[in-house]
Amino acid sequence: MTIREEQVLERIERARGRRARLRDDTIVLAHGSGGKATRTLVDAVFREAFANPVLDRMDDSARFAVNGVDLAFTTDSYVVSPLFFPGGDIGDLAVNGTVNDLAVAGATPLHLSAGFILEEGFPVESLRHITESMRAAAEAAGVDIVTGDTKVVQRGKADGCYISTSGVGVVTDPPSGALRPGDAVLVTGPIGEHGVTIMLARGELDLEADLASDTAPLGCLLAELRDACPGAVRRMRDATRGGVATVLNEIAADAGLAIAVDEGAVPVRPAVRGACELLGIDPMYVACEGRAVVVVAPEAEAAALAALRAHPLGAGAAVIAHVKDDPSGLVLLKTAFGGTRIVDLLAGDPLPRIC
Amino acid sequence: MTIREEQVLERIERARGRRARLRDDTIVLAHGSGGKATRTLVDAVFREAFANPVLDRMDDSARFAVNGVDLAFTTDSYVVSPLFFPGGDIGDLAVNGTVNDLAVAGATPLHLSAGFILEEGFPVESLRHITESMRAAAEAAGVDIVTGDTKVVQRGKADGCYISTSGVGVVTDPPSGALRPGDAVLVTGPIGEHGVTIMLARGELDLEADLASDTAPLGCLLAELRDACPGAVRRMRDATRGGVATVLNEIAADAGLAIAVDEGAVPVRPAVRGACELLGIDPMYVACEGRAVVVVAPEAEAAALAALRAHPLGAGAAVIAHVKDDPSGLVLLKTAFGGTRIVDLLAGDPLPRIC
């Protein structure tokens, strides 16, 4: 590392140490991006108001015990546009997203709730398609939708249909959470397919590609992984808004360690790469809805990769990075051209309403 | 009862026995009213798709056991307009509503989730007010908000802020559910205040009244009730959308018994009564957000009333009805003028976006 590089890293570390300050007076789309702006809003408004030890862990799911039973509990609201897209719709997206938030916590998803905000004039036939997708997704994930709510707002006060799903699961095999240098970082399949599919489905680009959303329930895949390398799974995250880059940043920051990514090892389908180049965005930041990032102990790397690849939803799994001592909290990318650059959290929002 | 009356009742019973058929092609505001149209939509679309034994009970909360622990789980989406109104805002409404759905199931509310759908341009200061209300409401109800989500949609795709809350509680003392003729039906306070407050806050009526929403957490009040008459509580419901009339209809239908209401015994504040007369609506159908309907065994009537009245949130409690054998599933109202009329579910929606 040159002296200049060291100074840059030092400045970044200092900046990250500062408490996030919310400078905006009004909500902007970037606050929903999953990147820096979201984090700032969450820290400055929600965590400030609701502070409690469970929330403060800021995991995909909240974890708590009730009468000795270790539960996971999570929620997500879905505002994806368009509602229907190749590979899925807002319905299976909502079920899979909630199931996956429970699965990456090492929980077995059990019961889901679904709240609908419908716009006056929304076709009942479309609603039936959505609920049928939800039913099929719930069946595939082995969960029941046990409670719900329906609200209707006037025309122009929503965009067809928004869905909020929450889920309860029982924690059976939580990841240890304790990363160490040398740990291997894997993705369970090619990245960015959901985000690019949504962009193309909006028709804003004059581009056609044979792409479909990767939306899928990850419970079984991650259970196979845990069985294949018991006790060696350090961390699991599903790479939704903000993509793999955002998840890696959060993992590195939580652990106070570095993650060194080998760009050439990151699986990206040619159609995704091509669309991203046209859009001027990095596939590392594009949302997946059926891909997880997992960190395993060094000795479990081969077994983890084999277990993932043996499952249909993990056929394209790859080792993409390793954990390093420093620079603490940062994600470095070794580019295909031999250089190294920092992969930071995005400030803005390349793709609004992706989920 | 005259022969004509008997014929009318018979016709109503036959109509109720028929399976609800959804005739609408598109969603209308009435589908969010909590009345007949909501029930038809829920039956024809959601229950049809998601059918499972827990959902099919159609309680305010879903109940299920996880490793032997009896849990309650509920969700609600809030789209109230305006967001701020005398006595509360969308924030405490969302927390209290979810807490109350757990409390009426005989559960101790424990943990809440909160999902926010924000419109681009929404003032951060307003969001802070809302989260502060949620914090205070959660504190008052003894629950933590442990997980959440934030989405942002473009201008014109929401109405400032929508909130979906879900809650998990542990079931400690569930009502028996088994109603019997002679049981007493109580409300925990004057009805219709929330709904009328929202109507007046919209400024659509040139009317001022010294009214505030009754939004409040009912956990403590209902725990006191259960302590005062152990084993004698048959049923508890919070009277939100559709008001006390809708809740009574659902209780009567579930039990296959009749409920005979004494109109003169129903507590309604003069300002609510006056506003309802101007609006041409019956206060029995107007939403409360801090009132419950409870059914207790005949011998517990006096103790239940005394226990409710001893608590600040139940000071205006009253016995309003008794359970009768027949006409099965119907709610009858003995009017102040000595007549009797049937109180049916409303087909339409007198007050959209009330919660």
TrEMBL record, chains A, B:
What NCBIfam families does UniProt report for this protein, alphabetically? hypE
- The source organism is Actinomadura verrucosospora
* Gene Ontology biological process terms, A to Z: protein maturation
**Domain PurM-like C-terminal: start-end pairs:** 180-328
Annotated family = Belongs to the HypE family.
Q: Please give the InterPro entries that the UniProt record associates with this protein.
A: HypE, PurM-like_C_dom, PurM-like_C_sf, PurM-like_N, PurM-like_N_sf
Taxonomy, superkingdom: Bacteria
One Pfam family, please name it: AIRS
Q: What Enzyme Commission number does this protein have?
A: 2.7.4.16
Q: What molecular function does GO assign, one term?
A: thiamine-phosphate kinase activity
> Keywords assigned by UniProt?
Transferase
Spell out the protein name for this chain: Hydrogenase expression/formation protein HypE
* Keyword Lyase among UniProt keywords: no
Domain PurM-like N-terminal stretches:
59-171
Q: What class of enzyme is it?
A: transferase
